[in-house]
Structures are given as structure tokens and as C-alpha cells.
Fold:
Amino acid sequence: MLEIRKYQETLKKDWDQFIADSQASSILFFRNFMEYHADRFQDFSLVILEDDKILGVLPANTHDGILYSHQGLTYGGLIFSKKIDVETTSACFHSLFDYLHQQNINKLIYKSCPDFVKSEPHSIEDFSFNRVNARLINQEISFAINLKTPVHIQQRRKRGIKKASKLGLKIHLDESWEKFWENLENNLYTKFRTQPTHALKEIHYLKKQFPDHIHLFTCHKDTDLLSGMVIFTNSNFVHAQYISSSEKGRELGAVDFLMNHLLSHFSNYNFFSLGVCTNKENNTINKGLMNWKEGFGAKPFIQNTYSLETKNFHLLENIFV
Structure:
């Protein structure tokens, strides 16, 4: 018999250990990461257990009576144990929807993980959502490079790498967060009239919480900061959370040079994630950004978001014959 519990502080150690060993281990799902913006979201994360053993967890929050696969996270959904089978997975979704219905939460907005996040890619959740008549309400395209196959870099990117190499550019594992953040904020505002997802004080907090998983790499010409990337490392993949370059850096091929270095530096991982290229407001694709990522061999991965009525939980009953 499965049991659903709402997350509470007493479960923190068990939650984090489960995430570390799960099929989608990511620093985004550890409680210290989720809670850096706890003042902005009403947490309603859930734990699914069988005989007090965790089978799955759902990072989530509520807003206006709707449960969201956590709105403060880039991706999410129900995170499972590596050893879970199809029948138990289906039972977990049934129990989850039933529990939410009993809690008078009538709607769930569920944001899935792209496959490169998972140690063993699967799409069993799509079957469950089809059974309960869930609606696909959004699709984003994330790009990631498979580091376990030969990485094919386009000639244009190779020219940038060669140019930067001849000019003697240098790459550092850096702690100059303030200087990089100033460059990042200026670039984002100039190009997109937006700001980084994390304020400088928030990235300082996260770096302190995850010193072995959050890193800043920068590219310099003498003492001049030309470009930089903030990298989040996970068990299966690394993710470029922020990429920024000065005007001079773009002229000198600094971002291409830095990217090429990091592909080699993190070659022991399975994937190098470069994030989404889709615009949330109108679901268009940033062609320039997409072309740059494809220039390093990145391939598209679809991330689905579903809307479902929890009253349909009964449609997951009697599906095994």
C-alpha cells in the first residue's frame, strides 16, 4: 500500500539522499537549492512511500489552488528510484492523483525532465498522462551535447577557437562573481531587457551550499574579462546555467574557446546541457542561440508540460491484465 506525505523538515535528510541516488539526480532537487527562493513559492512537495521506503518525490508548490511541478525549477516532475518498475510507477501516479483529489486540489500542472537529466531515459509518465486525459499545454526545446559520442564542431566555431588560441587567451576557474555578474546583467538587459534568474546574492548563497557543484569559468586576455560560464554539475550531466561575453570577447572568439575547453574538461560526464532556446511568452525559437549551440554538436530534447484534472485518477485503475 502506497502512502503520500507532504514534505516537512524532518524528511530533509531522506529526501536529499533519495535525490542523490535517484534516476534524475540534479542539484535543483536538493532541499537547500529549492529553498533559496522559499519566500516566493508555497511549497507543497510530496513524498511517495511504501513501507516507509521512498519510491518517488515530487518537488511542487501551490498557487491559487493549483499544484505546480515546482515553478521555481527549470524542470521537475515525479522523481523515481533507479530500480522502480512500470507497474509501480503507474501505481505512484495513481496514488498521487488520488491524494491530490482528496486534498481538494483539482488541477496539476506537471513539468517533466528532459531525457538527458535521467541516468536511464524513459517516458512512462506520458502513458499515465494519456490515460488520465492530460492536456499537453507547452513544449520547450532544450539543447544538450552527448559527451559519450564524438563531438562534431562546425567550422565557424573552429575558426573562433583557433583565433582565440593564437591570441593567447587564458581560461580560469574563477571566483570573480561580482565582475562576471556585472557583465552578465549588462548583456541580458541590452539584448533581452531581462535579468538573470538568480540575483548575485542568491548565486553566492547557492555556491556556498554547493561548493563542489557550482563553478565559474572565465576567459581572459591579460586581465581583461572576455567571457564566462556558470556551470552546475550533476551526477549524469553538467549544465551551463549562464553564458556571457563582452563585445571584445565576441570579436576574439572567447566564448567558442571557453566552450571547447569545457567540453574537454567535463568529458567524463554523459551530457553537457546548454539550456532552452524557446521563448516562454510566444513559444518561438531563438535562431541565433540555437545555431550557436548546434555549432558544438548540441541536439534538441523536448520538455513537456501537462495540465490534468486530478479527478481522473480512477482511469489508471485496472490497466494491467
